[in-house]
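Sample intake sheet
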Amino acid sequence: MKTEYEFRPKILGFLCNWCCYAGADLCGISRFQYPPYIKVIRLMCSGRVDPLFIFRSFLNGMDGVFIGGCWPGECHYSTEGNYDALTKKYIYKKLLAHIGINPDRLRLEWVSASEGIRFAEVMNSFSKQLIDMGPIGKAEGLADEELKSRLQVASSLVPYLKLVEREKIRVRFQTEKEYEEYFNGEKFTKLFDEMIAKNVTTGLLLALLRKRDSSIDEIAQSLAVDRSVAIQQLQASVRQGFVHFDEAHNRYGVAN
C-alpha cells in the first residue's frame, strides 16, 4: 500500500548564545513542542553569522536557514551585533531573490532567554511556511544543477559582498522601522543594483557560458532578465575579456 510522501523541511538555525539559544534550551526543558528536524548551531552573537554560512547551508541541502538573536537594545555586546544581523537579513534576502530563490527561506527572529514558548512558536511557524513552499529548488522551478550553480556563484562573491556591506551599505539606526524603511527604500535599491546585482548577474552569466555557448535570447531566458539587460552584461563582459562572440554562429562563449 502506497503512502503519500510527507515533505519535512531541513532547517538549520544559528542561535545567539545569550538569548535565543537559552530560549531554545528553556523550550526543551519546558517540553514545548516544535519539529524535531531543526538542527541548531550556537554562536556567541547573531551578528557573527557569516553570509557564507547561509549559502553553504543551502548548498548542503537546507530548505531554510534561521537566525535567532537578542531583542534590539538587549545585545550583550557594545557593537549591537543583532543590528548587524538585521542588516545582513535585508541584503541577503534580496540577493536570494535575485538568484531566483525564495527569500523567505531565510528568517531572522528575536527570542530572549525567557521566551521558550516563543522559540517553539517561531520554529513551528517557519516549518509550516517551508512545508507550504516545498523543497528548495523544486519549488522555485530550478533543477538541482542550476540551483547549485546559482548558490556557488553567490558564495564565490561573498568576500566582495562583505566589502561592499562594510564600505557602502552598513548603517546604524535606533529602531527596526528605520532599518525597514532604509532597506526597502530607493537609496539601498540603487546601491544593490549597481554594486551587487550586476556582479552577481555577471557571475551567473559566466557560469552559464562555461556550460554551453548561447545566444542573447537563450541567455536572457536562462537568467530571467530582460533582453536589454542581457545585452548590457554581455557587452561589458566582452570588453573585459571574459566573453567572446562567435559571429559565424551568433553565439557567446567564455573567452579562452
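Comment: The chain is about 55% helix and 10% strand. The chain has a mean pLDDT of 93.
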